[in-house]
Design goal:
By secondary structure, the protein is of the alpha+beta class. The chain has helices spanning about 35-40, 90-100, 110-125, 215-220, 230-245; strands at about 30-35, 50-65, 70-80, 85-90, 130, 150, 175-190, 195-210, 245-255, 260-270. About 20% of the residues lie in helices and about 30% in strands.
């Protein structure tokens, strides 16, 4: 369990509590979680982050009324820079999006502007918002990738609680420099507050001494009973690989399955600020 589970910043969250759904636009429903809560435990300072990147969310259940009261539906893409002071707590995000349901807006642009302004205020950084018709969102097209899947390796698993020490010898005896693009679809962690399971495919692109694939797989499986938010898991994975393995460049990208009409896809990298456009079958 993470050391910040009982942090006072989490005590007032709606997550894990019974709540009423509001169908009239209400930006006050949004709640923020300081990124510093887990970054302090990782020894990360806001002014000296070892990565760049963003958190990309997709909203599949966004609807509002036009001026004549007719429902409009859309798919939304939200992106937040990893340098924002806060993450948006996901349940409050869902409640906020539901508050659009019975509210009239004159145009798609008005909705987009409201979303951008409210989410930027919550994250304390510019949030980029794009709305798409439900039958035409290019970013959500299924696309093939050339990542090497490590799921079928024959390994014995003894750790289902986070065990970063598994990586301590992952490339100790390696001399040659390689560049690899790996994927594991077995990542599972649990919500920090509710203990609900979070499922993801995680893509790791690195250059440096070759990492033992079996050790990496065991390490990723050790998240199975670990409690942490999506964004925090990805930053932990990034930092653990960087700490234990001699890596010259590293990108870590998790594609989480959706819950309540939202999926969260954190991306952290030493070289690229923007997440690749990639969608898995499970999304």
């Amino acid at each position: 369990m993470s050391t910040y589970t009982n942090a006072k910043e989490l005590s007032n969250l709606v997550l894990g509590k019974t709540t009423d759904y509001c169908s009239q636009y209400n930006p006050e429903l949004l709640q923020a979680v300081p990124r510093s809560l887990n970054r302090d435990s990782l020894g990360l300072k806001a002014e000296q982050l070892p990565f760049v990147g963003e958190d990309v969310w997709y909203g599949y259940e966004l609807s509002w009324l036009n001026d004549k009261g007719k429902p409009v539906v859309a798919v939304a893409e939200f992106s937040f820079p990893c340098t924002s002071a806060n993450i948006v707590e996901s349940k409050s995000f869902k409640l906020y999006l539901n508050s659009f349901n019975q509210t009239k807006f004159s145009s798609w642009q008005q909705v987009e502007s409201a979303l951008s302004a409210d989410l930027s205020a919550t994250a304390d950084a510019i949030a980029n918002v794009k709305l798409f018709p439900v039958n035409n969102c290019p970013a959500l097209a299924l696309s093939a990738d050339n990542a090497l899947c490590i799921d079928d390796l024959d390994v014995e698993i003894n750790h289902y609680q986070l065990a970063p020490e598994i990586l301590s010898t992952a490339n100790r005896n390696q001399e040659s420099q390689v560049e690899e693009y790996l994927v594991c679809h077995l990542l599972k962690s649990n919500c920090l507050i509710t203990n609900q399971p979070d499922w993801a495919s995680i893509y790791i692109n690195y250059r440096g001494k070759q990492i033992c694939h079996k050790s990496l797989l065991k390490y990723l499986i050790s998240f199975r009973q670990h409690n942490e938010f999506h964004e925090q898991c990805v930053e932990r994975i990034f930092c653990d690989i960087q700490r234990f393995c001699e890596i010259k460049s590293l990108s870590v990208f998790a594609r989480y399955t959706r819950r309540g009409g939202l999926d969260i896809n954190p991306f952290r990298s030493t070289i690229e600020k923007k997440a690749p456009k990639l969608r898995t079958l499970r999304q």
